[in-house]
What does this fold into?
Amino acid sequence: MRYLKITSCLFAIAFAFSCQDEPKQEIIEKQADFSYNVTEFADIGVLRYQIPGWEELNLDQQKLVYYLTQAGLSGRDITWDQNYRHNLSIRKGLEQIYTSFQGDRSTKEWQQFETYLNRVWFANGIHHHYSMDKMKPEFSKEYLVSLMEDQSISIPSEAVDVIFNDQDSKKVVLDKDKDIVLESAVNFYEPGITTKEAKAFYNSIKVNKEQPVELGLNSRLVRKNGQLVDDVYKSGGLYGEAIDQMIYWLQLAQGVAESDKQSKALGLLIEYYQTGSLDKWDEYCIAWSTSTEGAVDWINGFIEVYNDPIAYKGSYETIIQIKDFDMSRQMNVLSENAQWFEDNSPLMEEHKKDTVTGVSYKTVNVAGEAGDASPATPIGVNLPNNTWIRTVHGSKSVSLGNIISAYANAGGSGRLQEFAHDQKEIELEEKYGAKADKLHTALHEVVGHASGQINPGVGTPKETLGSYKSTIEEGRADLFGLYYLMDPKLEELGLVDNWKNYGMAAYDGYIRNGLVSQLVRLELGKDVEEAHMRNRQWVSAWVYEKGKEENVIEKVIKNGKTYYDIKDYDKLRMLFGELLRETQRITSEGDFEAGQELVETYGVKVDQAIHKEVLNRNKQFKAPAYRGFVNPVIVPIMEGEKITSFKIEQPDTFEEQMLMYSKNYGFLE
It folds into this structure.
């Protein structure tokens, strides 16, 4: 599970650490000699990040990082194909046009072509990475055809048509009144397969109820001879060409593993890719979860199910990490006290865990990302996702420290002054908001996702809550963190020096974002679809509605502008606790109807008048609504066939890196 993908500093003060960072010092000082900003286009900003701690690694550790990044990049094209069946042919054609075009690159239509190509690169396909809507180019179909003809470049006609028509208009459809599998463009299901068919197929498969595998995680559901079957991602199977390259690099990584535990985990990951066995995936996840020593770690696999409308299929992603030991030690206090948070939470007693097992929390520095984690990256991750493994063997929570720092150092947008209700709210945010945000992420990941238990005999949330699973789980973890952000226990543990002010700043920021500022990312007239965005809205809207009678949160109109002013923070905390209790009950009991009502009532629809107002207020800001990253390039220095050292190079442009990736890692084209 991952915590937010940072957007463009909606709260000001460089909303950079909406995850966590080091709790007792300010974030890494801005380095004047490093340029974080790469480019901007459409609603996107592209940044760079550094790799702190690289020089402290020995040569074998650096080799381990290098091999793991190469393995990750080797699977990059899998994400493109998973996102949409025509993505790879479209990308190949657009890139050929871009590199071979000899005409005037200053014309309006060519500039529109470049912008569209950049957007496609950033989104890993033709659907927006966040809204899921198909991105329509500003240039005409005739212009594209003329470019193709001039340069003798071929793109399949169906793929050309779909760029401009209304077919496959949304990557992931979550509208409860639609057939969400049939109408989603994502390539996890062969066209023509319905939601009813897909669910019936997986419901018919018998699994160990106590230790169920993640059915369908690493496969595409297709029809063969009139029957539904899983086309499995593995060596010799679907995506086999890329997976074989991944295996090659993972085997090299295993040869320089830091410990026997790391080596065992990498060996199981290799076996998983060789066989496609979900039992082997569980073995790997257990080995990976319990391998907590060493300076280097990784995330690699078909993992998050946000892109599947019915939450079975995992998107490919990889993140290679170097541990930041100093910052991680200071945040381990949450992990060490996870049981206290569970025991003192407002959950029903029967929904609390007797033992919160093995929650490890570390701040790490990213050394490379690929797949669904790049260019738009998470800032916090908690894995594995399989509930029984988390319960029995524990999980790992990490905060991506250098990513958070890069956001901070790239600068804020000034939106805080526009959307905050008054000067006191601004002052609280500027003084306490950044650390409150990172502490919320730590609580969300370490104690939020680790908390609670499912009642005996109740299926997994994927089975019981269906398409609402992801947003309910993210909201549940958010609520756990929100409840404790206003608790003196945080000050007792030495995490903050004024728990009340940190809590107030966190509550202001959450309500401001959930009800107002996140609307800048949504097209006027659209419903909220993205899981995290939905959960922030249904949490905020629910507490606002339930607190109306006691005026817990007041809706204020000043000079024709809408604000939300928290009048009673203590009562708001109680409402967060009440909603947490109910959300855990929904999860524990598998109450689909209650979950659906909660999300559909509070998390989907948007007040169109307020939305229009917010978009108009936001026009004054030039900072892009979304940001992501190019990756540093780790270059081996060779003596013959032997690696003797490495150098780190930063890409000059976004285009340079995207074209290099297609050339060097285009194994599915």
Remarks:
- The mean pLDDT is 92.
- The first helix runs from residue 59 to 74.
- The CA atoms of residues 234 and 607 lie 46 Å apart.
- The radius of gyration is 24 Å.
